[in-house]
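User: Here's a chain of 141 residues. Predict its fold as tokens.
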Amino acid sequence: MGQSFLCPLIRNRPVPIVSLSVPEVMLKEMDELEKSFGFTGRSELVRAAIRLMMDENRERSAMSGEVSGLVVVTHETEEEEPVTQLKHEYDQIIKTHIHSKLTPSTCVELFLVHGDARKVSSMSKAFQAKDEMKSSRFIQI
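Assistant: Prediction complete.
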């Protein structure tokens, strides 16, 4: 079992310690977010980010039947392969796909999707799970 420590920010209850590996560029951005949002440390920032992802997952899990939405993904220009793989895997629910080079090094992909809520949710989660993606967001319409 992992170590625990007392954290006054969480009502003095034992909190497990979790080791986390992130790329240097992400760490730098995390530190900027920490200051910008007024978090007292990286752990507080990570907990807030996890809560957001959990909320997003609950919303996606509550979807049922046929749904429509947008999946918006950003990635480095050289990271096209994972996008292409997922695009082919979910081609039955993708109605429109727009690719744009946002900056010389960043691309944005916009997928208009329609289909079974479980399949749409699965596609959204698949993009979020890819380390090569800078960001991924699902917007139900």
